[in-house]
Amino acid sequence: MGAGLVGSLLSLYLAQRGHEVTIYERRADLRKAGSVEGRSINLALSDRGWRALEGVGIGEEIRRVGIPMYRRVMHDQQGQLSFQPYGQDNQAIYSVSRAGLNRTLLDLAEQNPRIQLRFNEQCLGIDLRANHLELRDTLTGAQHTVPFQQLFGTDGAFSAVRGAMQRTDRFNYSQSYLEYGYKELTIEAGPGGEWPLEKNALHIWPRGQYLMIALPNLDGSFNCTLFFPYEGAHSFAALQTAAQVQAFFEEIFPDALPLMPDLREEFFQNPVGSLVTVRCFPWAFDDNVLLLGDASHAIVPFYGQGMNAGFEDCTVLNELLEHHGNDWSTVFEQFQRQRKPDADAMAELALYNFEEMRDRVADPRFLLQKKIESKIAAQYPGQWLSLYSQVTFSHIPYAEAWANGQRQEQIMRRLMPHIQAEADFAKPAVQTLIRNELAQQERQPPSEG
Ligand SMILES: Cc1cc2nc3c(=O)[nH]c(=O)nc-3n(C[C@H](O)[C@H](O)[C@H](O)COP(=O)(O)OP(=O)(O)OC[C@H]3O[C@@H](n4cnc5c(N)ncnc54)[C@H](O)[C@@H]3O)c2cc1C
Ligand SMILES: NC(=O)C1=CN([C@@H]2O[C@H](COP(=O)(O)OP(=O)(O)OC[C@H]3O[C@@H](n4cnc5c(N)ncnc54)[C@H](OP(=O)(O)O)[C@@H]3O)[C@@H](O)[C@H]2O)C=CC1
Ligand SMILES: Nc1ccccc1C(=O)C[C@H](N)C(=O)O
């Protein structure tokens, strides 16, 4: 259910294993003119996502249209820039078009004789005893029921499949909204289609309690997202007129404003999206239904990992199917046991990165700490991989990455009082401290992931 990013990719994996798949999608086919596309225009794709795409043979095709972003570029209120690389020199997260990626996945699904696509079909409910879907044709309004054998709920953060499971016994569910919303805005391409800001970077305007970010598009423009409180002195509620928006951007984002000629129109035309974390369990109902992607673990977007995590779900499910064949009961059970702690950790990481992006990246001490961490990583490659790299450039389970990251943070808290400048790293006393900390870490048993 749902032909979004995860549903369309999952269908390819299932078809590859010889299964007949029908995908139902409430929206119109986004490849046809006039269809309404999802909200965020571009997404950051990283190693977990790449691995899943490579598993169905489209890694290269997507990489050709992705823009590598090698570092964060922070813009302060005076327009001064500071920088933070994401990983080693050649490591990057990639800005890709959500619609373009979804289109490519749907094209592949359509070409596959084992996959049937049914657009304009909205799931209204599920009869979990009879294994029937209740569907509504959104063009005619007609309702009908369809039987299923295995149902994969990939219908996003507001999943109808999950809605049906919520009415079963001992189903745990929580949703938690931030008091922030987001609005998408545009930085226009320069004359001749050049990028008016550094192209191969993710731009951040950290402002303490809120932030704006920008990701590059292929046409020279940037897609900006303002993450902003709903209420308060600086909030969506406080910006009611074009003059207020203009004055606010002049004061807070002065270097971005001249690059946003459509700001006043966009600000009032584009919706404010809400930001929610959804946690639930179980994800499986008997050997019939399984939730994947945002349907089982919607997270706030600040790590750029929601889609990557959903794609990794596909990789993990595929590995379990490889191992257990069509023993759905075992596959579903193992899938949810393995993935739930990782999804929970990713939800925490996403909230943690919100604070980092809106606040900590503007602190020179934080940037110094990150430089020192990368020096430690370079000196002790087998013993130190930054939390960001573990999440973004590795396949270490999220829960393990989060536990390792918290341990590293403790070490840095002990180390940083001895460091006032980058050069202090080479001091014998600092080197000894680091050696001791790492030796101590080696002696500790690995944390339970
Ligand atoms: C502002 C923002 C920025 C983001 N940036 C990133 C990023 O940079 N990197 C990243 O990895 N992730 C990012 N994410 C997260 C990412 O968008 C999601 O994790 C991802 O789209 C989840 O894919 P999905 O297939 O599970 O759900 P969706 O993409 O939402 O797909 C669900 C599909 O199901 C359909 N559907 C819904 N209800 C029904 C129904 N009742 N019947 C039939 N069909 C239905 C929907 O129309 C949709 O097509 C971002 C999210 C937001 C909000
Ligand atoms: N974690 C997060 O904070 C968020 C994640 N997302 C994810 O981003 C992606 C793109 O989103 P997009 O496709 O634009 O989805 P939308 O936000 O447009 O939602 C699609 C449908 O979900 C229902 N819906 C929307 N908001 C709510 C709500 N607050 N409570 C209940 N139902 C709601 C509406 O259905 P109806 O018209 O029937 O009411 C809407 O038409 C998706 O993956 C989604 O899962 C989206 C928003 C926030
Ligand atoms: N795609 C996003 C969408 C919204 C907010 C952040 C991102 C990021 O990708 C942040 C990036 N991972 C960072 O840590 O700098």
From TrEMBL:
<feature type="domain" description="FAD-binding">
    <location>
        <begin position="2"/>
        <end position="347"/>
    </location>
</feature>
<protein>
    <recommendedName>
        <fullName>Kynurenine 3-monooxygenase</fullName>
        <ecNumber>1.14.13.9</ecNumber>
    </recommendedName>
</protein>
<comment type="similarity">
    <text>Belongs to the aromatic-ring hydroxylase family. KMO subfamily.</text>
</comment>
<comment type="pathway">
    <text>Cofactor biosynthesis; NAD(+) biosynthesis; quinolinate from L-kynurenine: step 1/3.</text>
</comment>
<keyword id="KW-0285">Flavoprotein</keyword>
<dbReference type="Pfam" id="PF01494">
    <property type="entry name" value="FAD_binding_3"/>
</dbReference>
<dbReference type="InterPro" id="IPR036188">
    <property type="entry name" value="FAD/NAD-bd_sf"/>
</dbReference>
<keyword id="KW-0560">Oxidoreductase</keyword>
<keyword id="KW-0503">Monooxygenase</keyword>
<comment type="function">
    <text>Catalyzes the hydroxylation of L-kynurenine (L-Kyn) to form 3-hydroxy-L-kynurenine (L-3OHKyn). Required for synthesis of quinolinic acid.</text>
</comment>
<dbReference type="InterPro" id="IPR027545">
    <property type="entry name" value="Kynurenine_monooxygenase"/>
</dbReference>
<dbReference type="InterPro" id="IPR002938">
    <property type="entry name" value="FAD-bd"/>
</dbReference>
<keyword id="KW-0274">FAD</keyword>
<keyword id="KW-0521">NADP</keyword>
<keyword id="KW-0662">Pyridine nucleotide biosynthesis</keyword>
